[in-house]
Amino acid sequence: MDFQATIDADGRIEPRDAMPDGYRKTLIRQIAQHAHSEIIGMQPEGNWISRAPSLRRKAILMAKVQDEAGHGLYLYAAAETLGVDRADLLDLLHSGRQKYSSIFNYPTLTWADIGAIGWLVDGAAIVNQVPLCRCSYGPYARAMVRVCKEESFHQRQGFEILYTLCNGTPEQKAMAQDALDRWWWPSLMMFGPPDTASTHSEQSMAWGIKRHSNDELRQRFVDMTVPQADVLGLRVPDDGLVYEDGHYRFTEPDYTELYDVVKGNGPCNQGRLAHRVKAHEDGAWVREAAAAYAAKKEARAA
Ligand code: BYC
């Protein structure tokens, strides 16, 4: 079956199938950005591993941060099936020529932020990524199935951190509210610009890469999250929030902030990238040793 017939029949495109250049390029852009987000996303949470309030919390957080590294791995591997090399993708990230999600350019100031990331950021990731399990490109869709299972677990652990704080002392509850106040708007921005300003949505939806528009997913996230805030006894920091016709109408985030953060002017952009580049440089000897070992093994087998 040719490319368009497969897309029309809601089938899967596989690595060796013919595909238009634009389809391949769009997938490389989105999957690489997604992979970069996973590994940069390890930093805001990694920041709290040594300060987690108990051994149990520390063990859980370490496992979660490791999961994010694993997600990066599946995604770089999925991108490689499109004919790119992960070393080149990392160079593009390190030189600022490829993006990662805006959300990871905000600081994690208190322990409650770790709860808010799990609840809101992983919650938004689930809303965005569950439809990607039906993406028309097979390797990306299959990677998403496992990622989503792990994200659900992450979301629960974040909610549980906040639930504990919200049922603790007044200071702990105030800390949880402060985290929600700071993470709410950046979480809404994770879904990208509004549909009227989204450059890729229409084509990506026609190709079955994206299944829903940015605004549809943002609405789904708000509808899912507001009742959860009620359970926590927290207030969503939006005076315009009203329940109407089965949906929560909400105030749009300030998209000029999104564009500014994406351009590199968020509170943590420079630090995140510098840390990533240093980690990559510090790991050079591991990559060299692995390559030398593989070469030796190959020579022996020959
Ligand atoms: N941040 O035409 P649009 C995670 C860019 S990982 C930065 O709507 P598209 C997690 C966009 O790239 C979270 N840039 O684009 C990890 C485009 O610029 P270019 C990451 C953004 O691609 C660890 C321009 O704006 N998830 O959840 O159709 C721990 C115009 O936008 C952002 C994914 O990557 C943003 N927020 O739609 C915890 C999911 N929004 O490339 C959690 C996969 C937009 O033309 N990605 N831009 O220069 C997607 O679903 C889509 O790429 C997006 C954007 C919905 C993000």
TrEMBL record:
Keywords, sorted A to Z: Oxidoreductase
GO terms of biological process kind: phenylacetate catabolic process
Superkingdom classification of source: Bacteria
SUPFAM superfamilies per the UniProt record, alphabetical: Ferritin-like (SSF47240)
GO MF annotation list: phenylacetyl-CoA 1,2-epoxidase activity
Lineage per the UniProt record: Bacteria, Bacillati, Actinomycetota, Actinomycetes, Propionibacteriales
Cited InterPro entries: Aromatic_CoA_ox/epox, Ferritin-like, Ferritin-like_SF, PaaA, PaaA_PaaC
Family annotation (Gene3D superfamilies): 1.20.1260.10
EC number(s) on file: 1.14.13.149
Entry protein name: 1,2-phenylacetyl-CoA epoxidase subunit A
GO cellular component terms, semicolon-separated: cytosol
